[in-house]
Amino acid sequence: MNKIISIILAFIFLVPLGIMAAEPARTDPPANAAPIITGDPAKTPSTLNVEAIKKGEALTLSRCIEIALSKQPSMLASMFTVSSYESKIGQAQSGYFPQINLSGEYNRLRSLSSSNSISATNKTYDQYIGTATVTQLIYDFGKTPTQVNIAKLNADASRSDFETTRATTIQTVKQAYYGLLKAQKNMDVARETVSQYEQHLDQAKGFFEVGTKPKYDVTKAEVDLSNARLNLITVDNALKIARVTLNNAMGLPDAADYKIVDSLTPVKKDVTLNQSITVALQNRPEILATGHRVNAAEKNITLAQKGFFPVISGAAAYNRGSFNEMTLRNDGWNAGIMISIPIFSGFLTHHQVKEAEATYNAAKANYELLKLNVILEVEQAYLNMTAAADKIPASELAQRQASENLEIANGRYAAGVGNPIEVTDAQVSYTNAKTTYIQALYDYNISVANLEKSMGLK
């Protein structure tokens, strides 16, 4: 008896170790995929809690990104998705270990007496049965190891999806941050325009009072000032919207009042188009995630093919029962090895293999399509950055020329030889030129951010 128990225990604890040791190596991602991202995203600095915004705090772009990576719900959702896929690895690995079950049964029985006499009486008694069962997979021709590998590949893909979410969050913050900078500078331009028209109105009134200019000049100046003040309201509203947009991007809709300290000063991105494409194909987390899913789909073919092979497992059980009325007690045990051989399942396994092959081919096609889309995205971002860079000096020159033209118009009007239409036209041209220059700076910074995201840079 002791020898049998020893054999059962050895079979329970040594067999799973042998199966795990025989697990085949995982297939590497496609050649163009980025390196595997390891580690628990839940423990990376990007998802740790950071200090909340203090009232009046001056925020840099990096500080806003740090806050977003800690507070954005999308980051938390992606992090927990990774955890769920990592749990599926443990679920797949559970097949290596023994399955232990306890069961109990109670019955209230009533039967006729064994006597054949007419006066026979019925008997009622209680029945108790307890069973302990242990089953252990011995060999399934690699089915369980394949399931584990598929789970690991899917977990790796989810980690790459986490990095995609992280990159998207950073990009959203950059756009909102530069948008707020642009709105603040447009606000400065609108205030300057109102101030200019107020001065022009004072001049017109002065000239009218001394009789050197007609009433029309005053009325024209008042209309221009009213329009400038209306525009100031519009720009102020745009500034408020830009601020709440940044708050939302950081995941802090009720953030305390703060200031931003960075500028739109362009920083040249010195990289060629070919270099950008190469880096993108190596670093984009979407490519890595898709590469892992291609490998998982390939292993699913192997897993489906395992359905043609038998499964060998072992089982041991101990039973104990009693009948209280009859004071009978019995116990017993059994141990053995089982083999399950699939003979015919209505071509189920055959069609499962076909489905897995089709899924794998579709995954490979999607992988190639993704690479094409990434290359297109990089090319567009690069061309947009180049065009935005070319617009900066042109718009800067236009702003300088418009400023000189406004000075001339104001000087002519102050000298009494100009007219209000010249001043208004010059002011509008200057305001438009300055706004265009601010837009050019914004477009360049956004195009650089878009290129960095398309390249998979953090």
Characterize this entry briefly.
With 458 residues, the chain is an alpha+beta fold.
Could you outline the blueprint of secondary structure elements for this entry?
Blueprint: H1 2-21, E1 57-59, H2 61-71, H3 73-93, E2 99-112, E3 122-139, H4 143-210, H5 215-250, E4 258-260, H6 273-283, H7 285-305, E5 311-323, E6 328-340, H8 348-414, H9 420-454
Parallel strand pairs: 1-4
Antiparallel strand pairs: 2-3, 3-5, 5-6
Helix pairs in contact: 2-4, 3-4, 4-5, 4-7, 4-9, 6-8, 7-8, 8-9
Structure description:
- A hairpin with a 4-residue loop joins strand 5 and strand 6.
- This protein has 458 residues and is an alpha+beta fold.
- It is elongated.
- The chain has a single domain, classed as Outer membrane efflux proteins (OEP) (Up-down Bundle), CATH 1.20.1600.
Tags for this entry?
458 residues; alpha+beta; Outer membrane efflux proteins (OEP); two-stranded parallel ribbon; 9 helices
Low-confidence stretches: 24-47
Q: Tell me the CATH architecture.
A: Up-down Bundle
CATH class: Mainly Alpha
Number of domains: 1
> What global shape is seen?
elongated
CATH superfamily: Outer membrane efflux proteins (OEP)
Count of runs of 4 or more consecutive helical residues: 9
Distance between the termini: 65 Å
Order of helices and strands: HEHHEEHHEHHEEHH
